[in-house]
Input
Amino acid sequence: MKTKPLFIVLSAPSGCGKSTLIDMLLQEYSDICYSISCTTRDPRGEEEDGLDYHFKTKERFEELIKEDAFIEYAKVHDNYYGTLKAPIQEVLAEGNSMILDIDVQGAAKVREYVRNLPNTDPMKIGYVDIFINPPSMEELRRRLEGRGTDAPEVIEKRLANAEGEMSHAAEYMYQVTNDDLAIAYKRLCDLVDALSGRM
Output
C-alpha cells in the first residue's frame, strides 16, 4: 500500500514516555526510520556511533555547520547537537517516513526551516509535529520519582523544565496526552495512519 512519506517531529517533557512511544512505532511500522542526531560529546556507557548518535569532533561539526548540512543544531553545555538534512532527504526520497525526537527549541528551528522550503519539497509536504503531554504535573512528578534514578533536585529541575516546555505545546499541529500508554500509542498510530494515507 503506497503511503505518503511523513517527516514527524516529536517532543515531550522528560518522563512523558516519548522514547517508549517512539520504540513502539518503530517496531510496528517498518517504513518509519529514526533520525540519529550528531553530537560532539563523548559516548557514554554502551553508546555506539551511528546507532545512538553520530559522534563528531568539534572541528568536523563546525565544518558541517559551514556546509549548511544541518536542519537544526544547538550548543548545550559546551557540546554541539544537531540533525543532518541528508539522511532525512534520503529516507523521504525512498518513500519512507522519518521520525525526529527533539526538544521544543529544536522543534521550533525545524519548523522555521521547513516553513521556508518550497511547497514541492518532500520535507514540507510530509511535515507533522506532535507534542506528548503528561496527564498532570502531579502524575509527572510521580513518574519521575518512581524511576528512582534521579536525585530530588534533578527531579525539581526536570519538572520546572517540563512546565516551560508545555507552554509551547500549542505551537504543535497535534497534541497527545499520555495518561495510559496503550491509549496514547493508539492515538499516535491513528494520527500516523491518517496523515500517511493508510486509513
